[in-house]
Amino acid sequence: MSNQNRPDVLREETSAKDYDLLYSGEGDGNPGYGAYDRPYWNSHYYPLYKAVFEEVVRIGGQSQQILEVGCGSGSFAHLLFDKSKLIYHGFDFSEVAVRKAGARTGRPEQFSVARADDNAPMQRPYDTIVCLEVLEHIESDLQVVEGWKPGCACVCSVPNFDQPDHVRFFRHEDEVRKRYQGLLELDHVQRVPRALVRGRGWRAYLRALRWSRDNPKQFAALLGYKTFENLAGWIIFSGHRRG
Q: What is the DSSP string of the chain?
């Protein structure tokens, strides 16, 4: 379907083949994918992973079964395995990412290859869906959410910034509520600003500060003032799939 007929779509989805190249380091796309090879505690995504884990435990306790839609190379799964005994399975349509997830965690049996809209993974038993930084990449995101089991808990995140492989992005919480509240009974929506130093190192951080001296908003964001609005961040939203 062309973007002209889909006002909510900025550009076409990136293919699984392209993601395989990105995760393997061979693609010409976003160089940030190399950051996914870092340990979760040294990733600029760590504030997101930590906040999502806390929300998963809050919404479902310590005895739930987790199904992660779009697990990537397993960073969040690694954190979850380290900090809990929750039952987990993750899937992603990138074979390279799934292979890396198994190698990272030492639990390859906990991951499989499938698209977000495939039916087979949804036949697994689960209490809670985790879907992080996925829905912005999918044209049919609403159909994906619609396929989740009625009544299950859901913890999701989307970015507040655009990049070449995003189909859409969300500037603030109201846009998230407007898009997903018909399918999800949301009880918690929060902002998480990106880490200022973690994942980039002090040298790169100080260099960014120096380069942003003529950009007051970016300079202030790098100092921790309105980081979410002026630099980058994520919106976490959680609740239950409507019946």
A: --GGG-TT-SSPPPPHHHHHHHHHT--SS-GGGGGGGS-GGGSTTHHHHHHHHHHHHHHHTTS-EEEEES-TTSHHHHHHHHH---EEEEEES-HHHHHHHHHHHT-GGGEEE--TT-SGGGGS--SEEEEES-GGG-TTHHHHHHTSPTT-EEEEEEESS--TT-S---SSHHHHHHHHTTTEEEEEEEEEEPPSSTTTHHHHHHHHHHHTTT-HHHHHHHTTSSHHHHT-EEEEEEEEE--
Q: Token pair of 61, please?
A: 């306790």
Gyration radius of the chain over CA positions? 18
CB 182 within 8 A of CB 22: no
Q: pTM for this one?
A: 0.86
For the domain made up of 3-197+234-241, give the CATH fold. Answer: Rossmann fold (3.40.50)
What is the per-residue pLDDT for 28?
53
8-57 pLDDT tens trace: 887 889 899 988 888 887 655 554 456 678 899 988 889 999 999 999 99
What is the pLDDT, as a whole number, of residue 58? 94
CB 105 within 8 Å of CB 81: yes
The full set of domain ranges for the chain reads 3-197+234-241
Q: Rounded distance, CA 224 to CA 29, Å? A: 29
Q: How many whole angstroms separate alpha carbon 129 and alpha carbon 131?
A: 6
Chain-centre distance for alpha carbon 136: 9
